[in-house]
Amino acid sequence: MNNKGSVAIFGLMLGLTIIILGLALAPAVSQATETARNQTNGDTVGLDCSNSSISDFDKATCIATDLNIFYFIGSIILIGGSLIGIKILSG
Q1: Contact 65, 33 (CB under 8 A)
Q2: Is-contact 18 79, C-beta < 8 A?
Q3: C-alpha–C-alpha distance, residues 56 and 83, integer Å
Q4: CA distance 66 to 49
Q5: What are phi and psi of 69, to 5 degrees?
Q6: Three-state SS string across the chain, please?
Q7: How many other CB atoms are there within 10 angstroms of residue 66's CB atom?
Q8: pLDDT band at residue 76, thresholds of 50, 70 and 90?
Q9: What is the pTM of this model?
Q10: What is the dihedral of CA 55, 61, 67, 69, to 10 degrees?
Q11: Would you say residue 20 has pLDDT above 90?
């Protein structure tokens, strides 16, 4: 196998590794998001997103926090997928 083929296989493995690591970290990010959205409990400070009488600023913060897991997993899959795509398209 020539050097170019070895680099292509390495790039594919690196892309798959990034995707797998992103999906493996997803439960931890999801748990951190849930902790942030819950009520304040002991030493853990929460946003209390289920309360309907919170301010508009807090509601916007709850929505942004809720989108955190989507952006995290999406960006990791995009980075890994682009690495794989570049290696496939470049030959």
Answers
A1: yes
A2: yes
A3: 40
A4: 10
A5: -65, -35
A6: CCHHHHHHHHHHHHHHHHHHHHHHHHHHHHHHHHHHHCCCECCECCCCCCCCCCCHHHHHHHHHHHCHHHHHHHHHHHHHHHHHHHHHHCC
A7: 15
A8: very high
A9: 0.73
A10: -130
A11: yes
Distance between CA 29 and CA 20 in Å, rounded? 14
Nearest CA among 77, 83, 89 for reference residue 25: 77
- Domain residue ranges of the chain, discontinuous segments joined by +: 3-89
**What is the per-residue pLDDT across 4-13, written as a single tens digit (0 to 9) for each?**
777 778 888 9
Q: What is the reported pLDDT for 36?
A: 87
> End-to-end distance of the chain based on CA atoms, in angstroms?
14
- Type of residue numbered 39: Q
**Per-residue confidence (pLDDT) for residue 45, from 0 to 100:** 79
